[in-house]
Write a structure and sequence with these properties.
This protein has 21 helices and 19 strands. The chain has about 725 residues and is an alpha+beta fold. It binds adenosine-5'-diphosphate (ADP) and magnesium ion.
């Protein structure tokens, strides 16, 4: 993220005049409001002072050591940068949140350090910019792409790259077009001979043989042409499907590799609609429409050259109406484009709604909200189809007239040709006229096709930019150039870790923890204090903001994600079983596991007995379409899945929270066996289940407040003691 903006000339001069030579600029960032007005001002922070500069004027210069408690605050419609001056909270400047909030949160932290004389170096931030520096519009989510300033050449290059191996097939329409063109030029020429030399000649019947020969030639050419079209159609089908497969796999692969942070910003329905619908639109354009367009363009040029050679005058007639038609088409293009984007948004909304409500159908039913769901869905589809209908109607109304405008020239040719013919001076024969009209038709066909380009291009670019949004996204968590594939022993050390999902809102603050291999650590604290966040960081679903996490003295950033996650076993509160057999679900993390291994894992998880009681045992189908298992049963399958690959680190996040006490015992028993000899991080709502943990880490609002064994912490009568007592009271009250 940029923290050192270049000042405009006027501001820079003002700053030079106001500052002394030995001041070092640490930060220089823009602010956006002065009172109610939008402005382009700058806050400049040096190692001693903080300046506010607007249009060549220094609005203030404060000694930074007189200020404290730098902070940012979200106001209505904008944000403020504050500090305390002589104990009074003072607004330093106001700025636009999306564009500058994370910037100012870094600057605030930096100023705090300068004020305390804790650092002489400016902080840096690896967070990406969210707004285009050129035009100020937001980037596509999690990318550095501005849809407005993006170099279109780049997009097309990428697309071209994706067509590797399919190019010959895609070029075939061009070849067909050339042959078709040749046929279509030859046939009118033959027809002309037939009309002028045989049909209109006196005693035409004596030329019957020649005439039939000519018909036969025409039929043959037509057959050749059609055969080529068949080949072209078949090749297009192959190329189309391959391209679709390639693009879909690329998208799915990318979607799977995206970091949790960005997955959470997208809905499943949205991702699915991109992988299904948008890919189909792009595929159709690339493998069907585009080659056709190229071929048509090519035909158009050839037809034009030939027509010019035959009769420049006729050519002129073709082109007289064209400028009007083209103007019309461009106007129309703009409108259609906007309408298509709108239709896409509506379609996506319907899709997401559908997905959401089918996934949550239990909730819908249990609240008796079926009618509302149906009603909402109808409204959405109605809006979508109304938009699509109106787009189609507009297109189908305007398009024929575009066609008429384009073809106007052919009527002129007919008129002119007939005038010449009736003039009877021999400048025109019926055969020649027929040939001309035929040729002008050859030119009109590609022209008419070209008029459909705008509609298809706009549908294509809309869909393609949606796809690019995903393809171009840089995963926030990614492997370094040469990641290490370590064999994990299980020592984990968390050093001075701070983290926030948003940089301006820290969730964990300066957490430290040392765990030896094989130890079990319980993480305790109120809901929302950051327990799950801490284990997310250990699994490296997110990268820490400050500090480091080391496993066996290697920073998790340097370990390949694959090696890391394949040696961590996780059991969460919510278990997702994939559609398939219980066996498949258990061996999910180790597809080549033997039957013995699967049964052993199930036994460890206390799952073997209940599985054997099912009519089909390990082959019972579970998941979306399968047998419904109870929460405890699902959880035990999840545990079996977590142990089968013998992970060195085990993570249990409220694994028993949703279960009744009886089942919990069974599972607790399984978990105890499981954690034996593995480094284990356990989060549990019921504190009693963490009693045999080697150490307990107690968190409060992201900070470690206590650390020690259960006995030590009870002895201490501090925060943990209070938590335990409160829970006992609550349980007593229940009984
Ligand atoms: N993906 C996320 N994006 C933004 N904030 C989050 C996200 N996940 C959790 N938080 C916030 O972080 C804080 C800690 O959450 P979490 O670690 O899940 O708490 P715990 O597991 O202790 O209940 C909460 O305030 C929560 O709202
Ligand atoms: Mg949690």
């Amino acid at each position: 993220m940029k923290l050192l903006y270049d000042l405009p000339k006027k501001d820079s001069e003002a700053f030079k005049a106001a500052s002394s030579g030995d001041e070092k600029i640490m930060y220089s960032v823009p602010y956006d409001f002065e009172g109610e007005k939008r402005v382009n001002g700058y806050i400049v922070v040096t190692n001693a002072f903080i300046y506010k500069i607007l249009d060549g004027d220094i609005l203030f210069k404060y000694d930074i050591s007189e200020l404290s408690d730098f902070s940012t605050e979200v106001l209505y419609g904008s944000c403020g940068f504050y500090a305390k001056k002589n104990g009074i909270s003072t607004l330093l400047c106001m700025f636009i949140s999306g564009r500058n909030l994370s910037r100012y949160s870094v600057v605030a932290a930096g100023c705090e350090l300068i004020a305390k004389k804790a650092s002489n170096e400016p902080l840096t931030s690896s967070e990406h910019e969210k707004f285009c520096p050129k035009c100020g519009r937001p980037f596509l989510i999690n990318t550095q792409i501005c849809p407005f300033c993006q170099d279109k050449k780049d997009i097309y290059k990428k697309l071209w790259g994706m067509t590797k191996g399919l190019r010959l097939m895609m070029l075939f329409p061009l070849f067909t077009a050339i042959v078709a063109m040749a046929v279509r030029f030859i046939v009118p020429a033959i027809q002309r001979v037939a009309i002028d030399n045989y049909i209109l000649k006196e005693g035409g019947s004596s030329h019957l043989t020649e005439f039939f020969l000519i018909v036969a030639a025409i039929v043959t050419f037509d057959l050749i042409n059609r055969a080529l079209n068949v080949v072209q159609g078949r090749l297009a089908a192959i190329a189309g499907n391959r391209f679709m497969r390639i693009l879909r796999s690329m998208l799915f692969e990318k979607a799977e590799s995206l970091s949790m942070a960005s997955i959470q910003q997208k809905s499943t329905g949205d991702l699915m609609s991109r992988i299904n619908n948008d890919v189909a639109v792009v595929q159709n354009f690339i493998t069907n429409l585009l080659p056709t367009y190229v071929a048509q363009l090519f035909s158009f040029i050839i037809a034009l050259i030939l027509l010019l050679a035959l009769s420049p005058m006729m050519c002129l007639f073709v082109f007289i109406p064209l400028p009007f038609a083209i103007f019309f088409i461009f106007k129309f293009w703009g409108t259609m484009r906007q309408r298509n984007v709108h239709a896409w948004i509506l379609a996506r909304r319907t899709h997401i709604y559908l997905q959401d409500n089918l996934n949550g159908i239990r909730v819908v039913k249990s609240f008796g909200k079926e009618d509302k769901a149906i009603n909402d869905f109808e409204n959405y589809t109605e809006a979508q189809s109304a938009k699509e209908e109106s787009n189609a109607k507009l297109f189908d109304t305007v398009f024929p007239f575009v066609g008429f405008a384009v073809r106007l020239g052919s009527y002129l040719i007919l008129l002119y040709g007939n005038i010449l013919l009736f003039g009877g001076d021999g400048r025109m024969h019926p055969g020649k006229l027929a040939q001309f009209t035929n040729y002008s038709n050859i030119i009109y066909e590609p022209l008419m096709q070209i008029t459909t380009i705008p509609r298809n291009i706009s549908a294509f670019t809309t869909s393609f930019s949606k796809i690019l949004e995903i393809l171009e996204e840089e995963p926030e968590v990614s492997d370094i150039a040469l990641p290490i594939d370590i064999r994990i022993e299980g020592d984990v050390s968390i050093k001075n870790v701070s983290f926030g999902y948003d940089s301006y809102n820290p969730v964990l603050k300066n957490v430290n923890l040392e765990v030896k291999k094989g130890e079990m650590v319980g993480i305790v604290g109120h809901s929302g204090c950051g327990k799950t966040t801490l284990i997310n960081l250990i699994m490296r679903l997110y990268d820490v903001t400050e500090g480091s996490i080391e496993i066996d003295d290697v920073n998790v950033r340097d370990i390949s994600q694959n090696a890391l996650r394949s040696q961590i076993g996780v059991v969460l509160q919510e278990t997702h079983l994939f559609s398939g057999s219980i066996r498949d679900n258990i061996r999910y993390s180790k597809p080549l596991a033997t039957n013995e291994e699967i049964v052993a894992a199930a036994r460890t998880a206390n799952a073997h007995d209940f599985i054997m009681k099912l009519p089909q045992g390990y082959n019972t189908i579970v998941g979306e379409k399968g047998l419904s298992l109870s929460g405890g049963e699902r959880q035990r399958i999840a545990i079996a899945r977590a142990v089968i690959h013998n992970p060195r680190i085990l993570i249990l996040d409220e694994a028993t929270a949703a279960l009744d006490t009886e089942t919990e015992k069974l599972i607790q028993d399984a978990l105890n066996r499981l954690s034996d000899g593995r480094t284990t991080f356990a989060i549990a709502h019921r504190l009693s289940t963490l009693r045999n943990a080697d150490k307990l880490l107690v968190l409060d609002r992201g900070k470690v407040v206590e650390f020690g064994t259960h006995a030590e912490l009870i002895e201490k009568k501090g925060y943990y003691y209070k938590l335990v007592m409160a829970q006992r009271l609550a349980e007593l009250a229940k009984q």
